[in-house]
């Protein structure tokens, strides 16, 4: 069984940090992309963690929506790094797949919460 979403997002952040350390060792474009990836990849979990203590359903939805956007951005940077051959696609495949799964989970949670909010008077 896979860990819960906050733990999965934390694990993605950990893996992104490690990947960015490797990218940062290379000069030029790799460093710029590493900075972008680091920001978005660590923001996913930070927003999910903030949502755990949200003040309302609207706040929860907002935090999860931001996390979903950051996951999509992270997925973008991973794809770009792979197709630019800065890192081998094989090294990025699992992390890219995990980002896709997290996007789907977050989107599903957001949709469910929005429906619940609309049903609540």
Report on this model:
The protein has a single domain (5-119), classed as de novo design (two linked rop proteins). Helices cover 83% and strands 0% of the residues. The chain has helices at residues 5-24, 29-51, 57-83, 89-119. Helix 1 (5-24) runs antiparallel to helix 2 (29-51), helix 1 runs antiparallel to helix 4 and helix 3 runs antiparallel to helix 4. It is elongated. The model has no long low-confidence stretch (mean pLDDT 94).
What layout of secondary structure does this protein have?
Blueprint: H1 5-24, H2 29-51, H3 57-83, H4 89-119
Shape: elongated
- Contiguous uncertain segments of 5+ residues: none
The overall average pLDDT, rounded, is 94
How does the major sheet shape up? none
Tag the structure with descriptive keywords.
121 residues; mainly alpha; de novo design (two linked rop proteins); 0% strand; elongated
Give a quick summary of the entry.
This protein has 121 residues and is an all-alpha fold. The chain is built from four helices and no strands. 83% of the residues lie in helices and 0% in strands.
């Amino acid at each position: 069984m896979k860990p819960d979403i906050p733990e999965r997002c934390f694990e993605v952040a950990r893996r992104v940090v490690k990947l960015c350390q490797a990218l940062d060792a290379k000069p030029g474009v790799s460093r710029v992309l590493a900075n972008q990836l680091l920001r978005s990849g660590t923001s996913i979990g930070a927003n999910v963690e903030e949502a755990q203590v949200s003040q309302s359903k609207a706040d929860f939805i907002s935090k999860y929506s931001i996390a979903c956007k950051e996951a999509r951005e992270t997925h973008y940077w991973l794809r770009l790094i792979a197709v630019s051959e800065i890192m081998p696609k094989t090294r990025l495949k699992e992390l890219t797949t995990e980002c896709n799964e997290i996007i789907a989970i977050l989107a599903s949670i957001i949709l469910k919460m929005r429906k619940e909010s609309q049903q609540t008077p």
